[in-house]
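Action item from last week, closing it out:
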Amino acid sequence: MLAMPAVALLLALIRQAWGGGGDVSPLLLSSALPMLGVLLFDATGALKRRQIGVDVLAVLSIAVAIALHEQATAAVVAAMAATGRLLDTFAAGKAAREMAALLQRAPRLAHRLDGEALSTVAIEEVCSGDVLLVMQGEMVPVDGPLVGEEAALDESPLTGESLPVRLQAGGWLRSGAINAGDSLRMIAARRAEDSTFNGIVKLVGQAASSKAPASRLADRYALGFIPVALALAALAWWASGDPARALAVLVVATPCPLLLAVPVALMSGISNCAGRGVLVKGGHALEALAAADVLFFDKTGTLTGGQAVLSDIRVYGALEAGALLRLAAALDQMSCHVLARAILSAAHERGSGPLPLPEQVEEKPGAGICGVVEGWRVAIGTAQYVLLHAAAEPWLLEEEKRMATEGASAVFVAVDGRLEGVLELSDQLRLETPRALRLLRRAGVRRMVMLTGDRREVAESIGGGIGVDEVHAELSPADKLERVVQASRERQRSVMVGDGVNDAPALAAAGVGVAMGARGSAAAAESADIVLLADRLDKLAEAKMVAAAALRLAAQSAALGMGLSLLAMLLAAAGYLPPLEGALLQELIDVAAIANALRALGVRPLRGQGKTLPEAKLSALRAEHRLLQPLLAKLSDLARSLPSMAAESRCVAMDELDAWLQLELLPHEQADERALYPEVSPLLGGDDPLAALSRSHQEIFRGIHRLARLFAQHRDSPSELGIQDIQQALYGLEAVLRLHFAQEDELFNSLSA
């Protein structure tokens, strides 16, 4: 559409410059007709929908130019219209919305048992009542009850929850879940077409097809401009009796600033977002993001990291926390369990050193693993599994209750037949989440709603702590979809952020669907309008600010172009601007409007943007915090065990902790106060931006010195009251340090590129 009028105009210019050759009018005419047909088709469709779009004036300009034998003018207008279409298409990209990725992930085969005979059949052949075998790592093909004693399932594709779910005999298995334990047997209760996973696929398709097409921004700007242009063209024709004047008015009125500058502004905004790790699938998504004021989001993988990490170590025996972690990690080298990987990662981060290879290893998939590590007989896993290798302790039941309340997973550790402690693993809040939600509020989001399949108490504890307006827990994919659709019915401008297959229907139905793309499912990315390539929610806040700025520049460019066009229309109506010259003048107006629109490329939404610490410096700071993490465990471990320790052991433990505080923690915090904070402050602006963190340093210094005094007093005159004072000081220092480390980590994260 663009090449044909461009080539025809080029040949016409060559002929005019050097003379010779035949008449190029037929070529100019034929080059404009295809674009005229496309514009006419779109304009007719818009009129049938009782809409009037930006294409109307372009259609009239080309048609009248052809009727008046102004073929060059027709070709110029066709070229400008085609350029606008090309830019709009390029901005939208070729993001396919089909559910190919989701369908590829769907189970296609099932292992059917006939007595003890095993056969592999197509999933469509599975009937209700069939006994199926699901091997380790395979996806559950259809819904039905569990036949065996117990099973461990990874239901993250359905619920988004990263922690394994344990089911007892008769428990309901849902298609789409992954067998994380040993091979299991089940009875098919439904056919594949009626299964949970297939239902999600259908929901996505229905939600995507129900979305109304968004009108183009240029069409909305043109609503007031078109009647003025038509009226002025008619008046010029009536006053002069010359239809060429009407054509001249229409040509300069052809809203090329809208056809060109608006797509350029949107495309520049999309390009700006891409540079920040945010893939926006078209101008309509950018427009909707800028206008959105209601934010829905999943919890796991969106607000949280989506993976289990070691959050605490509690010891109840003679071993220290570091030694307990080292033994567990050494044994977990032989396991492929998702929690084993988390424990291994924590051991490496906390400097446990080279891990010995275990011997005589035996594993019960999904339950636990045991073996010999450096002469110790170690067993780790669920409480039921570990109790096969050790006697129960009074604290065991309380730990199980606490883990269930907090939504965490417990890995119990037994050494030489004695329960020594427990490792707590949980899906933790992303470091940038609180800052991201604050930035989204600043960007115009007035209501934030958490939609999650997790338990209510866990969801509310997270949502309440970060300022979420509403929390809806224990939701199925259909429930999430209903919440988002309800917002659309109420004409709310919504954004839905998610990362799993279970979020895909809601993503497809929302005004703007945003997928966490780095670790999220392919189905979520396909259903979404925007993909966060870096899996950082604060990038969405930046993208929303960029989108709003791009739309402002689009409006400015349109106003600038239409204002200049209006002046040119008055000149044309007065007879001072012939049609072809008017078309060329319109090109200059386009250049001015486009130059203004291109400013969207340089939008910097955050004042601190561009003021960052070097990545090497940030990595070193994060590494220092990781090395200090074991100190937090030492503080709480000593506080818990002090009353039951022998006097001599108590003094040794206090001396070791005091030495660590004086030689490790105190120099670190002093270096931060004297060197790091003066370096960081100029990047943040303000007179004293780190005053709150400096105040935390004062509390840390005071806590260290107070502990040193309490330790000295207890050595001189030990008493039960003194032990209570030490416990209080230990817990207090731990709380201050946890908060301080979290604040510094968030600060470092905000200063990363």
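Closing note: Residues 4 and 569 are 28 Å apart (CA to CA).
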